[in-house]
TrEMBL record:
Pfam families: TFIIE_alpha. Keywords: DNA-binding, Transcription, Transcription regulation. It comes from Desulfurococcus amylolyticus DSM 16532. The gene is tfe. The winged helix domain is involved in binding to DNA in the preinitiation complex. This is Transcription factor E. The keyword Transcription applies. The lineage of its organism: Archaea, Thermoproteota, Thermoprotei, Desulfurococcales, Desulfurococcaceae.
């Protein structure tokens, strides 16, 4: 999920912070292989969502500008995204269950009953005759995904 939000570099940064407790801006490239300016942008974005908190670490060489993880904010962000994903999956499931759908056997595009009727049950893209869609597999997959998201939400709420 983090990769989807912040990309591979963001995931790499977050994993580094989790492993080491912090990431120093001055050592971004050395520690993670991510260019400093790209890393700073990602950290700034994470800071805006309160996932990481800026700080300073005194060393013998001077002061390092560090970023530390804010676990409660990360948990809240993940829960928020999971709930939004669940909501969208439920909407899609309801649409699938409540509508008669037709699909083109050639291109696979799907149409509601009204759309199929408006096109005389012919696909407007490739002139194939539309057939009623078998929604059982789609419904099954959606129910499984909702169940997985529910389990992830429950696990995160317990932490």
């Amino acid at each position: 999920m983090i990769k989807g939000i912040y990309g591979d570099p963001g995931y790499k940064l977050l994993m580094h912070i989790i492993e080491h407790g912090y990431v120093a801006e001055e050592l971004l490239t050395h520690d993670t292989g991510i260019k400093s300016n790209e890393g700073r942008k990602i950290l700034q974005k994470m800071s805006e969502e309160n996932i990481v908190i800026p700080g300073k670490l005194r060393t013998q060489e001077g002061v390092l500008h560090i970023w530390k993880l804010n676990p409660p904010a990360l948990k809240n962000l993940l829960l928020q995204r999971l709930r939004k994903t669940r909501e969208k999956l439920v909407l899609r499931l309801n649409f699938e269950e409540e509508n008669i759908l037709y699909e083109c056997p050639q291109c696979g595009r799907r149409y509601t009953l009204d759309e199929a009727y408006a096109n005389d049950y012919v696909c407007p893209v490739d002139d194939e005759i539309l057939v009623e869609a078998d929604k059982s597999k789609t419904v099954e997959v959606l129910k499984e995904l909702i169940s997985k998201v529910d389990n992830l939400i429950k696990r995160l709420e317990r932490v």
